[in-house]
Specification:
This is MULE transposase domain-containing protein. It contains 15 helices and eight strands. With 446 residues, it is of the alpha+beta class. It has three domains: 116 residues, Nucleotidyltransferase, domain 5 (2-Layer Sandwich); 78 residues; 127 residues, no CATH class. 15% of the residues are buried.
Length: 446
């Protein structure tokens, strides 16, 4: 999957295989190395199947990429095992403890909470779940804990999962048994449709900001609403550290400015807050709302508190914010609409040619019908000339003559063609119908 500036994914490569082993994944990365020899990602996010990372390492052994397991997949795995290994009276509490453990970004806090979780399971007699966590996750915490994933661009594989869901529901209509040639043809057309749909949205000014920018903006407004009325909840310890009281509880949180921002300077290519310009990668917070690429409420509060001169105009009224954001959106949309891609221009030219050909074919059909009804030698010669030209044009073949046979499940949502309905009658209605038919026959006889 390749992402654009609005976090919209577009498939770039497909792997169709009946098995899923390291050798199968290796074939995919061999093709990637042919196209992009310098391919060297910073991080690889996968589920807990080792075949993906092993296949990548066999092709790129010198890569700097660091393995990190998808947070969503780990959470689902833990929930399934809690339902199997933990008593019903403790399941909700254990699930809550494990879910909080996944989002802790501070190392010391993580070590303390993980030890508390294991101690709780041991005291409550949940030895199976305790042994499961120790055996499978205690020795490899850097691959799944959030404290080792602070500077990452993503921590889940939901972009790929969203594409898989769309492929299964919108394109395949939940039909798992599909011919390979139909599937390949569908994948090629699906990528073209997705790319064209995104481009149309941009040109018609219907494209929205990325999900992370939207969530960051929501957090900014929450910070302004709450901490604007409680400025004493923020205390500055040094030039780089602050203490902030949580909104829901009296928990004391620590916010720190870590490093300088390394993001792209363009507002369309980064995930900075469009209002106060806070960067999620240049700040850290000890709260539980640690989502990759999204600045929490407390970072916005510190930014508004530490830079009052730059944000005074923004903090006046909510309407001024909306006007500023709408003005930025209009200027961005005007700039985007002015940039028409060369591919779209070529497509418009091809559409004009198609319309012109359709018009000429209609005129040709009319002339052929007139010449057929004309009994002259000149009409026969003209028909012969038309036949030779059409025959030469028909020999231009782009695909094999035998096309892919269509299947009903590719056209209907439920996977089966609809059967004609037969009208059913009750016994009384049938007797009435028979009686009326007999009366009609008797009248005809009379």
């Amino acid at each position: 999957m390749v992402l654009n500036d609005r976090d919209k994914g577009l498939p770039a490569a497909f792997l169709l295989s009946g098995t899923m082993t390291s050798l199968d994944v290796e074939k995919l990365f061999l093709e990637i190395r042919k196209v992009v020899p310098e391919f060297d990602p910073v991080q690889i996010v996968t589920d807990e199947a080792p075949c993906f990372y092993n296949g990548f390492r066999s092709v790129f052994p010198q890569s700097r990429a660091k393995l990190h397991y998808c947070r969503w997949h780990i959470d689902k795995t833990w929930q399934r095992n809690v339902n199997k290994l933990v008593e019903p009276r403790l399941r909700s509490q254990v699930k809550k403890m494990l879910k909080e453990l996944l989002v802790i970004g501070d190392l010391s806090t993580f070590e303390r909470r993980f030890a508390e979780t294991l101690a709780f399971l041991r005291v409550e007699g949940q030895d199976k779940m305790n042994d499961y966590l120790r055996r499978n996750y205690l020795g490899r915490t850097p691959t799944w804990a959030s404290f080792s994933n602070k500077d990452a661009v993503m921590d889940t594989t939901m972009i790929s999962e969203r594409w898989h869901l769309r492929l299964k529901t919108e394109f395949l209509h939940r039909n798992s048994n599909t011919r390979a040639d139909c599937l390949v043809d569908m994948l090629i057309k699906a990528v073209e449709d997705l790319a064209e749909s995104d481009e149309v949205k941009v040109r018609r000014r219907l494209a929205t900001a990325s999900y992370r920018v939207q969530q960051t903006t929501i957090c900014h407004r929450l910070a302004k609403k709450h901490y604007g009325r409680h400025p004493d909840s923020i205390r500055q310890l040094s030039s780089e550290k602050w203490e902030v009281y949580s909104r829901q509880s009296e928990e004391l949180l620590h916010v720190q400015r870590r490093t300088g921002c390394q993001c792209n300077k363009s507002d369309e290519a980064n995930v900075h807050c469009p209002i106060c310009d806070v960067c999620p990668y240049a700040w850290s917070c000890s709260c539980m709302d640690n989502r990759t690429g999204i600045s929490c409420v407390h970072r916005h509060a510190v930014m508004l508190h530490s830079r009052p001169s730059n944000t005074a105009a923004i903090l006046q009224t909510q309407s001024s914010e909306e006007v500023a954001v709408s003005g930025e959106e209009e200027s961005t949309a005007a700039q985007i609409s002015a940039e028409v891609s060369a591919a779209e221009e070529r497509k418009e030219q091809r559409s004009l040619l198609r319309n012109s050909i359709s018009a000429k074919v209609s005129v040709l059909q009319t002339n052929v019908n007139i010449l057929v009804n004309t009994d002259t030698e000149q009409a026969r010669e003209m028909l012969t000339t038309i036949h030779d030209l059409v025959d030469a044009a028909s020999k231009i073949r782009l695909t094999p003559a035998t096309g892919i046979a269509t299947r009903p499940e590719l056209h209907s949502v439920r996977g089966k063609p609809k059967l004609p309905r037969v009208e059913l009658h009750t016994r009384k209605q049938s007797r009435v119908a028979k009686g009326s038919s007999r009366e009609g026959a008797g009248n005809d006889g009379d």
